[in-house]
Amino acid sequence: MIIVKDLTVERLDKKIFENINLSLASGNITILKGKNGSGKTTFLKTILNLIVPSFGSIYWKGKLLRTNLYDFYNNVTYIADKTTSLTKLNVKDNINIWKKIFLSNINDSQIEVALKTLKLENYLNQKVTTLSLGETKKLELLRLIIENKKIWVLDEPLSGLDDDSIELIKQTFEDHCAKEGSIIFSSHQNPGIYVTEEIHL
Amino acid sequence: MKFLKKIIFFYYREYKLNLSGIQDILTNIIFFFVSIFIFIFSIGPDKETISFIGVGIIWTLLLLSSTLSLRKFYQDDFENGNLLIMHLNGFSFGFIAILKTLSHFLFVQVPFLLSIPIACILLNIANDKLFFLFASFSIGSLILSCLGSISSSMNLMNQRNFLLGSVVVMIFSVPVIIFSVGIINMEESFNSLLNILFGILLIVFAINPWASGLCLKLSLENN
């Protein structure tokens, strides 16, 4: 689905990373590993066409990504390393807004199940500002279920999560791949998630 | 149809956000009225003087009040990554700029528009001038929203000096003020001045998506 060829990104004449190759097919999971500041977020943003690479090219369904951009965006969910939930609103309002703006066809009972699994069902009427870091992260990851898209691009999805939640994420990744989905995520370490490819930056 | 739904739900989100932050809008309006009172007290009780410079006062305060809300134009959505999410949801940066400009007009400027009749009573402005004030402010405030969009998107890359954005808006709003106040004071030239104001609106409305869109893209790229 996504093919990255010889990707190099430079900023202010400094090479962030160079000659990175990647092939992300259906059912694959790729992990990006590297130290702080090694360019993991930059790489993910480059894949999303938010940063123009200095060299190399990215292909989506056999065509250059930038010529086929909105079709790619229709198939991708990006979870950044910060929360995109609206902190002034409560959890329920955030979920409703996400369901609407992403034109999600997921129904209320599916949301209820997901909330119970993530142990967020008791926080529905609480403002996002009152949630802990881990709970906010879990709420953010709920967007994966709501958007229901094939490719997940995740920046540090495991940071701030406890062991139970990480186990849950592992299970969710496996389920997604079983449904022909693909995942690329960045992380300092891999807590036992089965990956098809590892990229070191 | 899907795209239209996304636009409608974008405004639903903006409505929810503005409703939760209604105290900001109310504070702006309170600032507007308190400033009017300060003008009245500093000028003195002469009704004719107040009436003569009233329209100028309203326009100056509308400009100042609307620059107060500029910081919120893109900043929150930029910091929490929602601009990125909107873009990935199929909106180009230029289109996001148009949507946000109209949202600023609806949720920040329209409340001012509704409070103009009260300001007219306070400043002893004749009722027959109210229509001209409404007409000029409807167009003028949309111009201010467009200028606000450009300056706030430029400011996303400038984390040090936010006042620079307000200065940009104020400088470029000088022609708007000239023609808007002119509409009210020279009723015989109403059509020609309104056309000029409308022309300025079309120019800034055309420039806004390009300029703001580019600034949004650059700031997200360098964030």
Give a written overview of the molecule.
The complex is a heterodimer of chains A (201) and B (223). Chain A contains six helices and nine strands, in the order βββαββαβαααβαββ. Chain A is an alpha/beta fold and 201 residues long. In chain A, the strands form two sheets. Chain A has a five-stranded parallel sheet with strand order 6-7-8-3-9, sandwiched between helices. In chain A, α3 (91-101) runs parallel beside α5. The two termini of chain A are 22 Å apart. The mean pLDDT of chain A is 87. Chain B is built from ten helices and no strands. In chain B, α2 (22-43) packs across α6, α3 runs antiparallel to α6 and α6 (93-122) packs across α10. Chain B is globular. Chain B starts with a helix and ends with a helix. Helix content of chain B is 83%, strand content 0%. Chain B has 223 residues and is mainly alpha-helical. Chain A binds chain B through residues 45, 48, 50-52, 70, 73-74, 76-78, 80, 82-89, 93, 97, 100-103, and chain B through 2, 5-6, 9-10, 12-13, 16-17, 20-21, 79-82, 84-85, 87-90, 217, 220-221.
List the helices and strands and how they pair.
The complex is a heterodimer of chains A (201) and B (223).
Chain A: E1 2-11, E2 14-24, E3 29-33, H1 40-47, E4 55-60, E5 63-64, H2 69-73, E6 76-79, H3 91-101, H4 108-117, H5 133-147, E7 151-155, H6 163-178, E8 182-186, E9 197-200
Parallel strand pairs in A: 3-8, 3-9, 6-7, 7-8
Antiparallel strand pairs in A: 1-2, 1-4, 4-5
Helix pairs in contact in A: 3-5
Chain B: H1 2-20, H2 22-43, H3 47-68, H4 75-79, H5 82-88, H6 93-122, H7 130-155, H8 163-172, H9 174-185, H10 190-221
Main β sheet profile of chain A: 5 strands, parallel
Rg of chain B, rounded, reads 18 Å
Order of helices and strands of chain B: HHHHHHHHHH
Shape of chain B: globular
Tell me which protein chains meet in the greatest interface and how many residues each side has. A-B, 26 and 24 residues
- How many E strands of chain A? 9
Shape assignment of chain A = globular
- Beta content of chain A comes to 25-35%
Let me know the largest β-sheet of chain B: none
- Average pLDDT confidence of chain A is 87
Poorly predicted residue ranges of chain A: none
Helix content, binned percent of chain B: over 70%
Q: What is the rounded Rg of chain A?
A: 17 Å
Task: Specify the number of helices of chain A.
Answer: 6
- Number of alpha- plus pi-helical segments of chain B: 10
Structural class of chain A: alpha/beta
Largest beta sheet of chain A: what is the strand line-up? 6-7-8-3-9
Whole-number average pLDDT of chain B? 87
Give the oligomer, counting copies of the same chain as homo and different chains as hetero.
Answer: heterodimer
Instruction: Indicate the low-confidence ranges of chain B by residue numbers.
Output: none
